[in-house]
Amino acid sequence: MMVVRINLGGSFPLLIAGIIAASISVITLANAKLDKSLIWGTYRPQVYFGIRAAEPESFLSGLVWFSPNKPDSILEARHECSEADKIDGYGWTYHDGRSLAVQEIKDTENNYLLETSWIKTDLQGTGSWAVRIQGTVLDPSIPASLSAIYYSGLESDSSSIEPTFEQENYVDGLPSKPDSSFDDIDSGRFIKAEKASSTLPGFSMRFSDTPGAKNKPANPDSIDYLEHEEEFQETRPKWHYLGLKLPQQHLWRGKEVVQSDVTSSVKAAYEAYGSKSMPFAADLLTLSDSVQPMSNFFALQRSFSGNFSFDIFYDAQDAPKATLLDGNSLGVALTASKQAYSQHLELTFPVPETDKVLKGKKGTSKTFVRELTSQIVGSIGYYFGSSIVDRSFTHDYDDIAAEPREANPQLTPPAELLTATPSRSKFPRGFYWDEGFHLAHISAWDPNLSLEVLRSWLNLIDEDGWVAREQVLGEEARSRVPPEFLTQYPTYANPPTLAMTVTDYIDRLAEKHQNIFPLEADMDTMTDPDQVNFDDSQITSSSYIEDPILARQFLMSIYPKLRQHYLWFRQTQRGQIKEWDRSARARNEAFRWRGRTRDHVLTSGLDDYPRASNPHVGELHLDLMCWMGSFAEAMVKVATALGEEDDMEEYEKHYKGIVTNVVDLHWNEEEKMFCDASVNEQDESFHVCHRGYLSIFPLTSQLLPVDSPQLGSILDMMHDKDHIWSSFGLRSLSKQDPNYGKGEDYWRGPIWVPMNYLALRALKKKYASQPGPYQAQAAKIYAELRENLVENVWKEYDRTGYTWEQYHPETGFGQRSHPFTGWTSMAAMILAELY
Ligand SMILES: *[C@@H]1O[C@H](CO)[C@@H](O)[C@H](O)[C@H]1NC(C)=O
Ligand SMILES: *[C@@H]1O[C@H](CO)[C@@H](O)[C@H](O)[C@H]1NC(C)=O
User: Fold this and answer.
1) What range defines the domain where residue 704 resides?
2) What CATH number has the domain bearing residue 286?
3) Tens digit of pLDDT for each residue in 333-385?
4) To test ligand 2's pocket by mutation, which of 134, 141, 142, 307 has the most ligand atoms within 8 angstroms of CB?
5) Cα–Cα distance for residue pair 546/539, rounded to 1 Å
6) Given its phi and psi angles, is residue 595 left (phi above 0), alpha (psi -120 to 50 degrees) or beta?
7) Does any domain span residue 217?
8) Which residue among 136, 138, 214, 305 is best mutated to probe the pocket of ligand 2, counting the most ligand atoms within 8 A of its Cβ?
9) What sequence ranges are listed for the domain Glycosyl hydrolase family 63 C-terminal (predicted)?
């Protein structure tokens, strides 16, 4: 007998009471009003398919499926993205971030290719949308059946979901004709609610077969079940359903809820029939066809044999009738939207014609660019809830004077975040340093969308200027995080990649409007950022670039937080110069990551990359120095754009200091390379040198001038097969380094796409394009590296169905988390040469 363990208490029961209490005081965020076309989305990237609104207590929905071929198959139901499901590749094939999302899921174990398509109409209203779920049998020589359950829940207690048969809610001509009784409907099912959330209006939902689909119910293919045939013939083709009233904070656990219900149906059958004469499994694995009063959770289920297709329509009450779809118009709209998508992609991600065309079973270069771009855009999720912060803990090496203090993790008030996520299976939440890379890609597709995400992150910066590097907001997010990574510390940083987003934005502005800076206040009468009132209907996906007034308003609105954040970095991550008799031309420019342990500098993002073997307060970290250089450069740009001259001069001074000090403090003449610095037992400063990603930072961050005497040796090392060059991209650590491939081997050899992107970007934008002694060498390295990297990521994508977290430094094989649709997707930018 099977047992389904339903753990509605969550793994942190003690926290839950606090979370519920905390969510009563929802913080209101300045300027947080989202553009309407972003209200609905596939904002639950952690499940294979789930829709919700980007607001705190929302309507949410999701898809659960399993093959109903044996009584306990409900235990193998698919729902949350998991490597354990052994899916042979899943990901968005079209996703525009606003109104279209098409995904393929190759579930070989269940013998089905699923296609989930979502489309939103009524873009400027509160949104109507539709879903098509299509199943195609992968191997027709093997019998195949699939049971699909679609659940919907209301997180806010402002209304409940009810089944309905009211005809008057529906526009004329819709194919699904509600019958007289809920139990008799074969052609469609209907549910409705008075409100979708405290801000979103009511809705009805229609469930129906796709016109023309030859859906067949899951039938027993053996005579063993003949004795039960009469009993089930009638119910078999029907929609089964379940309506429950659940605690709101558990609605996201749709799978456990339906598993529990289906399991009780199976249990009841065991009792009724005895194990000897059990009916066909698919006839038993059904929802219980019951509805509790005031349900806030509603699930509908169908079980099919062979190919199938069904549609779900979400009709917002106030949506203009013309925006409501039916099965036929949904098909037409999908085809048209895919075409429009491809056209926009050709414009934004042109694939160079001179290139060797990538080919494989998945398609060509164009497919690659389209799918990787769709996947990063489709990795965007919306999260809301408390996180855990420890404001009193300090690490041993962090503070010279500090007394060791006890851990004291506390729940924060709830906050919200719209963020792209690195991996839907392994890391479905916000990661600070990944995000700058994500946004580089997303902004090439839809600049405005990337700014919304940037703004969402900047809103999280606290009054000290700090933001946690991992954002684990709410219970659903928390359920996917190992306990040791839950607590965040306000002295810990992470590479400030969001500065890259700001720089990219201002560069785009500058390119569009020559000589426009500073953006003058009198370009518009509205200069107070609090007064900013955007007229949604006027704005297009690039209006923040087209329109200088909007640009100024946006920059003004983010500038105070950005400055606070910048100053927080400079203050809390300061490194020591004169304390250890180091000589450097700039007095203050030196940096050290806090939060280091003996074997890791998790805060640097390069986790186990080798550093000084004994942590020391006098350490100086080269990578942080370079990140701070890029941050200062971004600040110069914002201040220039806004005409903040005094601030601009301050940032410029920092930047210049970093450019000189990176050589003064980090260049080692004997090794001919850039290194970390530390302090030995005699209190003398010395260099810690490990060839790898760390040592190329002064190049990747473009801090070195093109005629820098240090440039040649970096380029030589990059291109050296015995060091970091491979036919698949740059390795994180030199093959010659004693730590190469050792320990957990995370950043000790494997190839990472984002660091290759930074290297390529620096080569393309600066060292290969501006005249200098190394220009030709840089150009050669650029061309070869780009080809190596793109071809390998493509080859592995084609072979495995996935983009991977990293690639093996000697075979090029994808390894660790997959799909890794965050920064690995940037291979598409590299192919399109967008830097
Ligand atoms: C662009 O961003 C602004 C500010 O958030 C927003 O008001 C506007 O509606 C957006 N437009 C689009 C099409 O994204
Ligand atoms: C199922 O769909 C696939 C793809 O459209 C098609 O090739 C196949 O013939 C279909 N199978 C049946 C039994 O209709």
Assistant:
1) 696-816
2) 2.70.98.110
3) 999 999 999 999 999 999 988 788 889 999 999 999 999 999 999 999 999 99
4) 307
5) 10
6) left
7) yes
8) 136
9) 329-833
